[in-house]
């Protein structure tokens, strides 16, 4: 008996169930569909209610149109065969997903039972509205689930007011992308500090030859997530103890560094760039350094998207005066509807979908999960360049669990922060008054949260 198979279930189930489950995992699940049709590898019905603890029950799962969802759907028939549970799946584009969930939860709907959500974008709003069922009572029930194996930073992202609002399924960290060939030709070491990055970007910046030293997101709202790692590296943050802190000397230094890099060494039009444009010009071979999320690496290494695919290097985010502190966040998690009629069944699905065995399968498809054991498993890293794997594992060690202000009105908060950086990019010399005004705006947003 492979003991790891038992992790699908809690204690007290019969050996017959474990054997049935083992049979259900024996085939190639990639050939299955998520429609609930019989899988060639699905276990035969035993006729015993004890062998299928959720026989006759069904849950509704709503996902985003995301690679993780495409990886999990072919595996669902095995879960259904082993548990007797029916999983009905619907998928939507991100904005449609948020809108659908908001409408249904506002109406008090019992469905969906389980859903994908973005903890840093809508997690606090959903939780404050009572739409998310805390999962604290479930995560340590089954020791084989090994909740401690999940990255603490990733769990922190999905925690609201001290309660576990969801379980991480997709993580990401900010890293440094660089051109190996350019650094080698110029005799430049890979920057380990932000100061070294500034010096290297300046040295490689040569607009007369169509080469720029640095690129990153410059649009007002999108830039906030990427400037966050600069902020943490200087020992600053967006807020502390419900007080806005984006006008401190450390914060202003971080914003100034990021904004100046883009102003002095960035390509034309950087003020209007989000990640697609930043990766696009990097992929054209016109930029030496790029900082952004590791989850977007294929935009730099896929020959179909990048002219320098074989020349791209990866490195941990450079250290500021407080060290290297990149964000290490949960970009997508799974949550349970607080109105679900069967929370035990909903949790059983989440426990399975975020188990070591299933995270291994989804991560093999290129979906960066949150389990340390899977990152330590060679099979779990086959979907990523070896150099990137080493950087990810290093980045997780000192990562920060958020990449934006943790407030309900995330959009307004991001605009307030982004205003500071954009003023620097457009040449504003006296940035402190701008930071003070933005800090007041962020504080007002924080105060509004207390009244909701």
UniProtKB/TrEMBL annotation:
Pfam families: SBP_bac_1
Gene3D superfamilies from the UniProt entry: Periplasmic binding protein-like II
Keywords noted in UniProt: Signal
Cleavable signal peptide: 1-23
Keyword Calcium among record annotations: no
Top-level lineage group: Bacteria
Chain intervals for the UniProt region annotation (Disordered): 30-49
UniProt xrefs under InterPro entries: Bact_solute-bd_prot1 (IPR050490), SBP (IPR006059)
PANTHER family the UniProt entry points to: ARABINOSE-BINDING PROTEIN-RELATED (PTHR43649), DIACETYLCHITOBIOSE BINDING PROTEIN DASA (PTHR43649:SF12)
Name used for this protein in its record: Sugar ABC transporter substrate-binding protein
